[in-house]
Amino acid sequence: ATASGYSGAATASGYSGAATASGNRGAATASGYSGAATASGDSGAATASGNRGAATASGPNSVAIVTGRRSRARGELGCWIVLTERDRDGVILGMKALEVDGKKVKANTFYTLENGKVVAA
């Protein structure tokens, strides 16, 4: 699914689905297993809630959020990523929000949360 207008929304809910929001303040959500969500417009949000999902924030002031087990997120410089770690039963073990600063968190590098630590995926 693709949304390209101002404040557009795209949703993908099937296995390996992809959602892309390219307009300003757009939202892309992928909720299926191994789904991918991308927000490329200014102030966009990409959310992947399925297991092994991926979210990418490439527009200025955007955020990539992953909430599924073994999921990963990445962003361009100045964006934010939010990572979630879950156990096999889906219980949340931890979450972290990080700014892509180019030093501690590199631009265009996928990260995941393992054992409470942020690691490159």
What would you say about this model in short?
The protein has no helices and 13 strands.
Description:
There is one protein chain. With 121 residues, the protein is an all-beta fold. The protein contains no helices and 13 strands. The chain has strands at 2-3, 9-12, 18-21, 27-30, 36-39, 45-48, 54-57, 63-66, 72-75, 80-86, 92-99, 111-114, 117-120. The strands form three sheets. A six-stranded mixed beta sheet has the order 2-4-6-8-10-11, with no helix packed on it. A five-stranded parallel beta sheet has the order 1-3-5-7-9, with no helix packed on it. It has a two-stranded antiparallel ribbon with strand order 12-13. The mean pLDDT is 90.
Shape: flat
H/E series? EEEEEEEEEEEEE
Stretches where pLDDT falls below 50 for ≥5 residues?
none
Percent strand equals over 45%
- The separation of the N and C termini measures 25 Å
Could you tell me the radius of gyration in angstroms? Answer: 13 Å
Mean pLDDT: 90
Largest sheet: 6 strands, mixed
Query: Helicity level, as a percent range?
Result: under 10%
Structural class: mainly beta
Q: Count every helix, treating DSSP H or I runs of 4 or more residues as helices.
A: 0
Q: What is the spatial order of strands in the main beta sheet?
A: 2-4-6-8-10-11
Give the strand tally.
Answer: 13
Chain-wise SSE layout:
Blueprint: E1 2-3, E2 9-12, E3 18-21, E4 27-30, E5 36-39, E6 45-48, E7 54-57, E8 63-66, E9 72-75, E10 80-86, E11 92-99, E12 111-114, E13 117-120
List keywords for this structure.
121 residues, mainly beta, six-stranded mixed beta sheet, five-stranded parallel beta sheet, 47% strand
